[in-house]
Specification:
It is built from 13 helices and 9 strands. The chain is α/β, with parallel strands linked by helices and 343 residues long. The strands form 2 sheets. A 5-stranded parallel sheet has the order 2-1-3-4-5, sandwiched between helices. Strand 6, helix 9 and strand 7 form a beta-alpha-beta unit. Helix 9 packs parallel to helix 12.
Amino acid sequence: MLDDLKMIHERDAQDALGIAEKQWQQLERRFAYAPLFTTDHIYNVVYAGMGGSALAALLAQTWPTIQEPFEVARGYDIPSYVNGDTLFIAASYSGNTEETLEALAQAKVKGAQIAVIAGGGKLVDIARAKNYPLTILPKVEQPRFAALYNLKALVDLFEQAHLLHADQAELGQAADFLKNTVCDWLPTVPTKRNLAKRIALECIGKSVVIYAGPKLFPAAYKWKIGFNENAKQIAWVGQFPEFNHNEFLGWSKQPVSKPYAVIDVRSSFEHERVQKRFAVTERLLSGLRPAPIVVDAVGESLLAQLLWTSVLGDFVTIYTALLNGLNPSPAELVEKFKKVMEE
């Protein structure tokens, strides 16, 4: 079915697969902030964002990482320690996310140093009125399709704020790597040779549970978002080694035939004990849960593996949407929810 290009074209009306294919280009964008961010006393960083906007910050906690404490705030409230030595980043693709706007108001009261990443909306208006450093994200079909734009904008902000200690050239190398590897997942590649299509076929009609270690957890979380928003299919995400201290036992009883698809996202850059935990877990839970779909991340650097896994998840979940008979792009129920909340 996934080799039927006519079906794919009809259901993927906004060309989500084409957007996924070209995501590597987002990493080549150079973002400037106006006014330029200048400071020499940032002692911690707080990033406020929800959904796909928060995803960029989660990815950044794996790469590039920064030396200063870095927390992602996903809600209305911000950490109590925020003060004048905090770089507070308000990020929302729509610019109208109510949680982020409330968090920004709190950060202003606390005297934080504020920067804004947005695609438009109230956040842009506030940033311009208050003269906060601002960068505007390019237009995309849905906010979740701008995750790598958002990541690059965050990396450029870290650089301008003298917080970046990684080499930006590594991003360029990873973008080139991604450009070449996504070719293996395109619609024109038959299912028998297409990893993304094969995984999608195993996930139809099931609740999906994705597991990863700390290094690739942000990518696994992106898979969860993709199953939810692209495929409109329920999914959860868990993290090793915490998994072995509680959730591990949850698989040990109840009917063996469980309506789940288990996906293990593994990296050669994880702590060696985390890698062993995956193997031991698979052995001890054999016959007690569905055999995991093992995704061994490809790439010679942690960043390459992070991006490879993230974009593979986009292809998998878009193909899953098509198998579900759905257009992967719209998120109509989310938009309806926002309107009802405004009433």
